[in-house]
Prior knowledge:
With about 130 residues, the protein is of the alpha+beta class.
Amino acid sequence: MIDNRLHLIYDTQLHMVECMFCRIVSGEIPADIVYRSSSVIGFRDIHPQAPVHVLLVPTRHIPSIIDVNACDEALFTEIQKSVCKLSSELHLENGFRVVVNHGPDGGQTVSHLHFHLLGKRQMSWPPG
Ligand code: AMP
Ligand code: ZN
């Protein structure tokens, strides 16, 4: 039991050292940060897919949308608040899209939960 717990603690720390978004959260890797609260940061995507393309990222390492647990129940409210604030600050009055990718079929390439906020162009449906 103790061994398992140690393994989990070790695993979490390893994730934080290796994870690109954890390194942005800690300031180790630079990013164009446009939003920050105690639980969420927002920074511009390095390969933007729209004139506005911001990633909203929990400051805590959570691998994916399916890993959000009861301890993180306030997270979605915090994400929604960040979307409201940014959509106003970045003048997305005409509309925008929020996207979460999960797993290989969903096209997730970074294993730290993030919400894409895309705007300032007409989006198409179905998505590619
Ligand atoms: P996803 O494919 O949904 O996992 O999205 C990952 C996103 O992270 C992609 O849109 C990448 O362009 C973006 N990305 C990867 N590394 C960085 C970085 N260092 N700074 C900003 N965005 C990044
Ligand atoms: Zn991380």
